[in-house]
Amino acid sequence: MADQFSFRLIATDGKARRGEITMPRGTVRTPAFMPVGTGGTVKAMYLDQVRALGSDIILGNTYHLMLRPGAERIGRLGGLHEFARWPYPILTDSGGFQVMSLAQLRKLSEQGVTFRSHIDGAPYEMSPERSIEIQGLLDSDIQMQLDECVALPAKENDVERAMELSLRWAERCKAAFGDQPGKAMFGIVQGGDVARLRIRSAQALSAMGLKGYAVGGLAVGEPQAVMLDMLEATCPELPADKPRYLMGVGTPDDILKSVARGIDMFDCVMPTRAGRHGLAYTKRGKVNLRNARHAEDPRPLDEESDCPAARDYSRAYLHHLVKSGEALGAMLLTWNNLAYYQRLMRDIRDAIEAEVFAERSALITEDWQRGDLPAR
């Protein structure tokens, strides 16, 4: 295993990039999708299954873990890898997004943010230094700077203020993180839906010489076209020799279009959340297992899939599980969805290496548009 954090580009096809991030705990093949392990668990999945599907890295959520069971407790128990039995790379977010969206009675200042837990109302403080301290206790391999994420649409002066504050917090996070061999701290580009602010943020963060860069504050209510415009403005300003992570994104279509604009890493709760609500992702688009039309359909979701959840269980059975509220329904559909996402990422990586990414993307999109096959 390498004892340093490094990123190398293996191939490019247009702006799409195929690469590898190497860390002491393993290699992450990019473009990569990171399943979200909010509270130290990818919901409805064994982490052994998550690994077997092709996941090189998962995401842990600083906000949720600091509230329960507590970062200090996880640190005493050997860190999040040991705690959750996942010996491979983990990325932790800073907690900032959840503070802004979930916490009660939050108050923002130059120093940081004070808030009350959405669980029991207990008071907490989160500064850039405390965020990095918590992520250190969790012992994650990639740690994110604390930033302020503004929901869109928003006034331009509010977006600019948050972007400038996030840059100052990035400097403080960099100082708090220091030099940790084998680990990385990523900065987060902010700037809402204003291209000039995105460019200014990306340039200022690039000048800090960080090991990686994220694009935050997108997929927060704006149309996809706006998100893609911001990526087109932002990615050329980021160092070509560092990984680029689009936070909280997204749908399979979002991923295809974002890879085409130079993004390397993704995370989203969508495949796991959809699985818990009866929605399956397949090569022919989404299938809602709650619909009555599946009640007597003996076909699997995808007879050609290498995932048992997609290949070996009838739609009728999956429909029954979902309608009955059985836990197995959520487990099987989450398994199917994460298998689909990881298969999509594998196809993307192979297509970039073969320099057929645009053609492959078009075929994938055509299959989605064709829709699910009707029962025979």
Q: What is the CATH topology assignment of the largest domain?
A: TIM Barrel
Structural class, from helix and strand content?
Answer: alpha/beta
Please, how many domains?
2
Order of strands, main sheet, comes to: 4-15-14-13-12-11-7-6-5
* Sheet with the most strands, sense and barrel status: 9 strands, parallel
The unreliable regions are none
Helix content: 40-55%
Annotated CATH homologous superfamily of the largest domain: Queuine tRNA-ribosyltransferase-like
Number of strands: 17
* Mean pLDDT across residues: 96
CATH class of the largest domain: Alpha Beta
Radius of gyration: 20 Å
Counted by DSSP, the helix tally is: 15
CATH architecture of the largest domain: Alpha-Beta Barrel
The gross shape turns out to be globular
| CA(first)-CA(last) distance | 51 Å
The percent range for strand residues is: 15-25%
Structure description:
- With 376 residues, this protein is α/β, with parallel strands linked by helices.
- It folds into two domains: 6-268, TIM Barrel (Alpha-Beta Barrel); 278-370, no CATH class.
- Helix content is 41%, strand content 19%.
- It has 15 helices and 17 strands.
- The protein has helices spanning 47-52, 62-67, 71-76, 80-84, 96-101, 128-138, 156-177, 195-207, 224-234, 252-259, 270-276, 308-311, 315-324, 327-353, 357-370, and strands at residues 6-13, 16-23, 26-30, 32-34, 36-37, 58-60, 90-92, 104-108, 113-116, 123-126, 142-144, 184-189, 212-215, 244-246, 265-267, 279-282, 285-288.
- β8 and β9 form a beta hairpin.
- The N and C termini lie far apart (51 Å).
- The model has no long low-confidence stretch (mean pLDDT 96).
